[in-house]
């Protein structure tokens, strides 16, 4: 049975494309193909994921950037300017930060994650482009950034705990639970982020939080409750949803 047929038999939707990518990666003995057929996610086998037209390094057991997160990356890049301080919080591979740095040369980029494997991955992704920090949410960031962040992009876990069991096997078995589990309602991390974000934002700065369609109104309310003006943006093409909160400018200030 050839590679395409084996992938199809395993339920892989884009069997032709994946077979070509595995061949490109160099798989003379078929070991990578066998692992993919057995259910391992494609991106760690290749060592990269396609994201906003870039190839983002992906290590094993690190959260794989989803296409829906391209909305978060594009919106963050649109708000950044050369010299802006940008933070990619809960950065995983560092994909969002990479896109912003690629699209807006000259940003001052920081990324942070709690997972040591993600931090190691992001260090490779963002080498020469920005600083990567290990720790729990804002506790990972240098205190000097407090009140100076122009764009805060966040892809914190937002899957309700009881729905993780229904996620695809690739996520459940090969990605860390801490990158998936958003607590009972999926908003546990978002509550903490919304409450703390204003202290880290510069006047006029924005926090962008990827969220679920059914949770978006709640995410926006959390941002409004923290004193930010909030809106929700969606992109049906990538199935992405992002809540954006903006810290008001100081009286008489211009951005």
Strands ordered across the widest β-sheet: 5-4-3-6-7-9-8
Radius of gyration: 19 Å
As for the CATH topology of the largest domain, it is Rossmann fold
Question: Helix count?
Answer: 10
How much helix is in the residues? 25-40%
Q: What is the compact description of this entry?
A:
The protein is an alpha/beta fold and 255 residues long.
Can you tell me about this structure?
By secondary structure, the protein is α/β, with parallel strands linked by helices. It folds into two domains: 3-57, no CATH class; 67-246, Rossmann fold, CATH 3.40.50. Helix content is 35%, strand content 21%. The protein has helices at 3-9, 15-25, 31-37, 42-46, 70-79, 95-103, 116-125, 169-174, 188-200, 216-225, and strands at residues 48-51, 54-57, 85-89, 108-113, 130-134, 149-154, 201-210, 229-235, 240-246. A seven-stranded mixed sheet has the order 5-4-3-6-7-9-8, with helices on both faces. A two-stranded antiparallel ribbon has the order 1-2. The longest helix has 13 residues, at 188-200.
